[in-house]
């Protein structure tokens, strides 16, 4: 729950292969099949160079989480993910004691009768009884190479007390466990924090980070993303998909479709053997794009046909490639 650990060893310092310049970071993103803008590559480069956490904010489905995954993969780093949620506490985010194992140890010691209570109390609070959660895992020395990529995903789902703890952690990259002492990272992890902006994050935490807004892509970039992520989609269909979704995002909908929905729709239409959009195909597959019935009802039928007609006219007016 809330933890994802992948990948192998890592090299965390800025200036290592693939992160020595903004252009190298752009190439690194491309290697991970992430179509990024230069502004994103610049802030990533600076976060690595300055050793600062990177705070990525934007609407859901715009590819924020994917940035951390690509960074870990292309740098061959361990990815540690803390998925945030309402009510997240230190026992789920940092550490907790393995109480069942401690109870077994106490019972065994009582049966053996070879240790007094004080000795038993000291024994059961040793490292072997500690369950490390994501934030503590990120402070551990790397097996080889440098520290991991720590992804703190959807921080806006947590509450202010957790933010306050995180602020302290990001200041010193250390955690104090009363029974064991202070654990400090030999090298700070690369920290990526994401937020869907369902609430404002405290300024004090943001000041610890470099900030970047991840918005919906332009039509040109979204088409480039489709070429990478859904290469089997016919070219004309890809252009129509992007044009239609770009227009959808200008409507007053409860939840606008993100990049993930664009890719899913392209895959779905390809599976249906579509080479171009038509009103019936749009109506039949709106559930891939929109996840709320009120939004589907608003678009389905005449509105979808109107948007599609506009898209086709605009594409027809464009010069041929």
UniProtKB/TrEMBL annotation:
<dbReference type="InterPro" id="IPR027417">
    <property type="entry name" value="P-loop_NTPase"/>
</dbReference>
<dbReference type="GO" id="GO:0016887">
    <property type="term" value="F:ATP hydrolysis activity"/>
</dbReference>
<dbReference type="Pfam" id="PF07728">
    <property type="entry name" value="AAA_5"/>
</dbReference>
<dbReference type="InterPro" id="IPR050764">
    <property type="entry name" value="CbbQ/NirQ/NorQ/GpvN"/>
</dbReference>
<dbReference type="InterPro" id="IPR011704">
    <property type="entry name" value="ATPase_dyneun-rel_AAA"/>
</dbReference>
<dbReference type="GO" id="GO:0005524">
    <property type="term" value="F:ATP binding"/>
</dbReference>
<protein>
    <submittedName>
        <fullName>MoxR-like ATPase</fullName>
    </submittedName>
</protein>
<feature type="domain" description="AAA+ ATPase">
    <location>
        <begin position="50"/>
        <end position="229"/>
    </location>
</feature>
<dbReference type="InterPro" id="IPR003593">
    <property type="entry name" value="AAA+_ATPase"/>
</dbReference>
């Amino acid at each position: 729950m809330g933890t994802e650990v992948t990948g192998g060893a890592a090299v965390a310092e800025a200036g290592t292969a693939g992160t020595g310049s903004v252009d190298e970071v752009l190439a690194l993103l491309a290697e991970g099949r992430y179509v990024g803008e230069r502004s994103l590559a610049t802030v990533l480069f600076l976060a690595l160079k300055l050793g600062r956490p990177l705070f990525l904010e934007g609407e859901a489905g715009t590819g924020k989480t994917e940035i951390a995954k690509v960074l870990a993969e292309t740098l061959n780093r361990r990815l540690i993910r803390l998925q945030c949620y309402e009510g997240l506490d230190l026992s789920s985010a940092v550490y907790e004691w393995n109480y069942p194992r401690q109870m077994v140890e106490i019972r065994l010691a009582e049966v053996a009768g070879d240790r007094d209570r004080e000795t038993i109390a000291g024994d059961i609070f040793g490292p072997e009884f500690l369950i490390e959660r994501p934030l503590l895992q990120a402070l551990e020395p790397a097996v080889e190479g440098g520290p991991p990529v720590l992804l703190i995903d959807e921080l806006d789902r947590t509450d202010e007390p957790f933010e306050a703890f995180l602020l302290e952690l990001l200041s010193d990259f250390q955690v104090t466990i009363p029974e064991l002492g202070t654990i400090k990272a030999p090298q700070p992890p690369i920290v990526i924090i994401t937020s869907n902006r369902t609430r404002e994050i405290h300024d004090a935490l943001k000041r610890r980070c470099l900030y970047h807004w991840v918005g919906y892509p332009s039509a040109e970039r979204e088409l480039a993303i489709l070429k990478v992520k859904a290469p089997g989609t016919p070219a004309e269909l890809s252009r129509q998909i992007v044009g239609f979704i770009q227009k959808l995002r200008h409507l007053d909908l409860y939840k606008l479709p993100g990049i993930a929905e664009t890719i899913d729709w392209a895959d779905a239409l390809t599976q249906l053997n579509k080479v171009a959009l038509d009103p019936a195909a749009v109506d039949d597959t709106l559930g891939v794009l929109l996840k709320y019935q009120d939004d589907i009802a608003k678009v389905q039928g005449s509105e979808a046909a109107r948007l599609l007609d506009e898209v086709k006219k605009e594409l027809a007016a464009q010069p041929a490639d």
